[in-house]
Amino acid sequence: MEYSTELKALKKDFESTTGMKVTGVDENRSFFHWKRLIFDELNCVDMLVISTYIRKRFTVEGNYTHLLPKLHSYMGSLALTISVEEIKKHIMK
Asked: What are the residue boundaries of the structural domains of the chain, listed by start?
């Protein structure tokens, strides 16, 4: 399956910045504006690394939006979900 440019850029940036490997990716056709990096399991250190990545890469002081990245349960795995707009603004600039 061929993935979007945004998802490829997100995966490459995440893995090169954090040193972590994702176990899968997802971009649902119904919710095409969200891209997901999938993890089978995360320990506390992994979650801290991910939260640091989110904070350094996507946080703009004083600017909160519901489109900010989320780490959550997704179809039996853990997923880091990021909107296409955020990927374009902060990674593909």
From this structure: 5-90
